[in-house]
Amino acid sequence: MSETFILGLLLLISPLVLLLLSIKRTNSNKLNLPPFPPKLPLIGNLHQLGSLPHRSLRSLSIKHGPIMLLQLGQVPTLVVSSPEIACEIMKTQDIIFASRPPSKIMATLLHGSDDIAFAPYGEYWRKARKLCVTHLLGTKMVQCFQHAREEEVECMMAIIYETSQSYVNMSSILNMFATNIVTRVVSNDLFRDQEKKSMLHMLIEENSALVGAFHPADFFPLIGWLDIFSLDWRGKRNAKRWDNILEEVINNKAKRLKDDVSHNNNRDFVEVLLSLENDPSVDFPFTRGNIKAILMDMFAAGIDTSYITLEWSMAELVRNPKVMKKLQDEVRGNARGKDMIRDEDLSKMSYLKSVIKEVMRLHPPVPLLLPRELTESSELSGYKIPKNTRIIINAWALARDPKFWEEPDEFKPERFMDSLIDFKGNDFQFIPFGAGRRICPGMNFAVHNVELALANLVNRFEWSMPENLSREDLDMHETPGLTSRKEESPNLVAKFLAVA
Fold first, then answer.
1. Of 40, 46, 412, which is closest to residue 220 (Cα–Cα)?
2. What integer best gives the mean pLDDT of the chain?
3. Residues flagged as binding site
4. Using one digit for the tens of pLDDT, what is the confidence trace for 251-267?
């Protein structure tokens, strides 16, 4: 966050905030609040977030403790970097910590309709999430799309083979794979329309940029009416484009469903949601706006998680050739001359699963879990936590806590081989998908995509750095934003191996 911006913001909001402070002041000593770093007038601790907040907040927690109360603008924000306290929040007291704070940009993008990821905790969220888990993201649906998943992996492999004479831009190829599989599952119509699919990619990228940007209105509600960085304008523009493309897809699908008597079991997500729109068993308001909002969730979360994890996986494997060799030995030993790894082969590949866990430990797709909001006053570790406090759980810091992990900054998949630690929300030192009521409902879908793709990538190709570059030259920095994408795409050389 630049000094110019901070100074400008101070000048802009100082009269309003000083007025607010003159009306209401909080005596933190009497309330026994958690420890907090020194803060500046008006902006509080905003200047300490830096461009990579998960790293900055971990540094602050080392100095001030695993539970800190920051003042981000006008918003009191509890930052948690301890697995024990994370367990208290997401398990023991989960129900009062399960809501979401309001987000101006999400309200704009979703036209005021509730999705699942950002919706506040309540009856709509509970029933909509259950509906999606039951009808869209359950084990049965994941299995239904096995053929589509395998076809998209085959397509990706063919493209890599065609370009393997030079180097392969892994960001491009992996993003294409993730976009294709998610688009195919969500809407076959979009998958078949290249022009709309290209537009969809642009919309998802803009959504990611907007959601990950700094929004003054979220930290200074008094100036929420100001569109300082044109983010509100950009959000409205993107929301309109989303609405246009989804409305067309939904309307076309609805017309065809009227004449469809086949009851095809392999329906895409749009078909499933439309079938539920007027289903009498759906006992809560479920509108066309909610369908669009849920579809936006599916696109964003489904694509980013798979793409980011695969990209970091390939980077870590190339940097660690012994791990790559061990993984290739396992995969090729199970493949036994097959040119394609199938879903049914994956259960035998324990080291593959350990590699993916280790990648997600070091590079969780969302390093700071989506913020929560406390709905009633509570107590954590002997400290009072006031109602409406915003909660940030630093999943990145939890997964590098030296109390729980030996050599936490090193890439060592072996740590998971004889361990029961998993990412399903029961081990709070390792929660890349969150935990409790708010755990990511698409976890199984994403992991299946990653396992199948990575197994095939290491089975059929030998991977190396381009000529004149060593593996130490591979950039391992992440970009600022909501998700932890690699800053630079790994450009790798792929040598195709014929099936013996």
1. 46
2. 89
3. 440
4. 988 888 777 655 566 68
Task: Give the pLDDT confidence of 311-328 residue by residue, as tens digits.
Answer: 999 999 999 999 999 999
Q: Which of 132, 2, 14 is nearest to 73 (CA)?
A: 14
Residue 20 pLDDT > 50: no
Number of residues assigned to the chain: 500
Which domains does the chain show, CATH number per domain? 3-496 (1.10.630.10)
Q: Which helix (H) or strand (E) holds 7?
A: helix 3-23
Annotated binding site for heme: 440
Q: Are 398 and 81 in contact (CB under 8 A)?
A: yes
Give the per-residue pLDDT at 25. 42
Smallest CA-to-CA distance from 207 within 302, 72, 77 is with 302
- Residue (of 71, 156, 105, 37) closest to 460 by Cα position: 156
Token look-up 């190709």 returns: 461
- A 10 A CB-CB count for 427 gives 17
pTM of the model: 0.91
For residues 104-119, give the mean pLDDT. 89
DSSP secondary structure string for all residues of 45-99? TGGGS-SSHHHHHHHHHHHH-SEEEEEETTEEEEEE--HHHHHIIIIITGGGG-B
Burial of 469 (0-12, 13-18, 19+ CB in 10 A): middle
Q: Which of 126, 120, 118, 92 is CA-nearest to residue 378?
A: 92
pLDDT of residue 263: 54
